[in-house]
Structures
1.
Amino acid sequence: MDPLFVEDRSRELEALLFVSPDPVPLDLLSDVVGLPPEEIEKQLKALAAEYDQQRRGWQLEEVAGGYRLATRPEYSAYVMRFLKPQGPQGLSKAALETLAIIAYHQPVTRAEIEEIRGVKADRSLATLLGKKLIQEKGRKEALGRPILYGTTDHFLRHFGLRTLEELPSLDEVFVQPDLTFPEEQERNNEGEPVKKQERKEL
């Protein structure tokens, strides 16, 4: 293949990734550029190697079923310092705990989340929905048909994951002392979970 042809397509791919706010799937890049997916993948790898060799401030990542350009982790402190005044507020401890429960137990209902955390989850769910980190995944076939919640593609992009299988194991995740999972709950003589006294979410 003509090297100039490869370079031209590489720059086209670079331009597409640069203007896209979300990871771009391989098949979409193939359709737009007009090359087979295997050739697109080869040229993307060449671009990634070029960025690494030249120590650019960004890198090419495969995440959430697509490809994107992202700043390198070693420059994150500068990026955060630049974005902090204008960026959105971070998640509260309550919202992070709720998000962790949803990520590892999805699909899960609000009542199940509250059973695990021992506190109301309305505010945290509203925050996570507003930030598009979670979404409704249907309704559970149970009394009242409660809404089921699960994570979104935006969740994967936000945490740099290609799939949910890349979530760290629970042993690697720091769990707050007051965050109790069902298997860890105190049980009565009949083996049933002892519910915590309901307390208002902070």
Note: Helices lie at 3-19, 26-33, 37-54, 76-83, 93-105, 110-117, 122-130, 153-158.
2.
Amino acid sequence: MRNNRKLWMALAAALLSACFVYGLYQLQRQQLTAEETIGVVIPKRFIAAGEMIKEEDLELARLARDAFAEDMLLDRYAAIGMEAAVPLGKGEPLLAWKLNEYGLQPGFKESTFGIPKDYIKSISSGIRAGDLVQLYASGGEGESRKLFPNSVVVASVKTSGNVEIDNLAQSHLLALADGNKEGMYAARRDANGPIDFLNLNLTEEQWLELDNLCRDGEIKLVVAYSPESFQRFGGAGSGEEKTP
């Protein structure tokens, strides 16, 4: 009995020792992996150009530090709410230049349409590229009404000389990117001319509805600046996100 007891104790000690050595090996391996790799943001699926990126579209993956580039994103929240400027492949590291923060490009299933000047009754002089606007139908026998339930994105606003309306000394978009609200207001106040050409990002259905409504000239558009514009420039913090 005593010999059997000693045998079991020896086996238990050997097993505990083996578990300890294995655990130490795994810990050292994880530490070595963490030192040699870095967590980068990758898409979980293919994302088309112009599509808005959501939290469930992204995940973190470990990448060898030797392969890391400075424009790779480390934080998922830096990309959430932004739009893909180019198609994003599943599993490839997400690069900052592939994201469109200001949404000037048409979104998923959208195109950029030039709105004929004859279609417009009035337009808010303060709108700029990247803003959100509300469209209203005015005129005809019926009552004026809101044309679409949601705001639409202004792709560009230009003068009669085909020059983008902005402050030539300080762009309002650059001011927003720097978080300089005072500079943004100054840029809008000191714009370089009246609006003559308006381009909007619309779906095909929205454009057809607008065109059919305004083509005979009885009903025209009222283009109003939407305060929702500021919600598009919230931005997210940067930095390396912790991986589980």
Note: The chain has a mean pLDDT of 78.
